Amino acid sequence: MPEESANTAAVPDTKPLLAARGLERRYGGRIAVTGLDIELRAGQVLGLLGPNGAGKTTTLEMLTGLLSPHAGEVRVGGLDPFRDSVRASALIGYMPEHPPLYPELTVDEFLDYCAGLRAIPRRGRRAAVERVKRDCQLVDVGGRRSGRLSRGYQQRLGIAQALIHDPPVVILDEPTIGLDPRQIREVRELIGRLASGRGVILSSHILPEVEASCSDVAILFRGRLVYTGPVRAEDSGRRWRVGLRRPPADPAEIERLPGVRSVVDLGESRYELDCVEDPSEGLIRASLDRGWDLFEIHPVSRTLEQRFLELTEEREPGAAAP
C-alpha cells in the first residue's frame, strides 16, 4: 500500500483549472457567443484573440461567473460558478478592461479594501498587500492616490487587485490597452511571472500582444471559436510548397494525387498544396513518371497572423458560415 500511494502522488494532476463546454450567450435575438469550448491548465497563458465585437468580453464574463450563459457550462476547479459562486470566485482573479479603481484611495488603501472584499482575515491583509505590491512592482507607490498614477501603474494595480487572494486562475481583459511600449513590456513580463503555478487567460484584439505573451491561443470570430492551439503551432504538414520545372498543363492533375485536397498556382512553376497527409511520395513518383522535373518540395508553416487573417477574412458577410 505505501508503494502504491507513493506512485499515485508522483502522477501530476492533469485536470484543467477551468473548463467551459458549449457556452452560448444571446442579447435579444443576437447571438454574442455560441458553441464555445475552452480549457485552461496550470502554467498556461491562453490568449483569447479576436477583432472588436467578436465576443471576447462576453466570454470572459461567463468564465468568471459575472454573466450566466444561456447554454453550456463552466467549471472552475470542478465548481459551478453559478451554483457555488462563493467558492468558485475564490479561485479566480479578474481584471476587466477598465480596472475598477477608486481614484481617491491610495494604492495601499485600495488593495487593503480589495483584500477585505476577498474575505482575507484582517491579520493577513498586510502581508497580502505587500505580496502583490512586490509582484506587480508597486512598492514605491503605495502611498500615492490611484487616480494620480500613470496608465501603466493603474494597469498594474488592476492586476494586483486580481491577485490579492492568490487565485490559481487569473483572467485579464485587454491588459495592455493604452500603454506605451515600455509599459507594455513591463506588463508582459508580469504576465509571464503570473503563469508560474497558475493558469492565465488574457483577451486582446492585438495579434502581436498574444504572440508575445501567450503559450496558446483561442481565436474568436463572430461569437464562434474558429481556432485553438499553440501560438507557434506548425500546420502538421497540411500545406506544402512544390516546384515543378515542367508542370502539367492542368493543375487538377496534381490535385488528383493521393493526399492532396487542393492546389494553388503561385506562378514561376511553384504551387501550394493543401493536403490531408504527406504528399511527397506520390509527388516524387508522379514527377518521375510524368516528367514534371520536381525541384522543390517542403511543408509550409503559417504564422499566427496568416492563420488569424485566413480564419476571419474568409468569413466576411456573404461568405459561407463556419
Characterization of the model:
Strand 8 (216-221) and strand 9 (224-230) form a beta hairpin. 33% of the residues lie in helices and 27% in strands. With 322 residues, the protein is α/β, with parallel strands linked by helices. The chain has 11 helices and 13 strands. It folds into 2 domains: 14-230, Rossmann fold, CATH 3.40.50.300; 239-300, Alpha-Beta Plaits (2-Layer Sandwich). The chain has helices at 2-10, 56-63, 85-89, 107-117, 122-135, 151-163, 181-194, 207-213, 252-255, 280-290, 304-313; strands spanning 18-27, 30-40, 45-49, 71-76, 92-95, 169-173, 199-204, 216-221, 224-230, 239-244, 260-267, 270-275, 294-299. The strands form 3 sheets. Strands 5-6-7-3-8-9 form a 6-stranded mixed β-sheet, with helices on both faces. Strands 11-12-10-13 form a 4-stranded antiparallel β-sheet. The radius of gyration is 25 Å and the shape is elongated. Mean pLDDT is 88; it is low at 1-12 and 315-322.
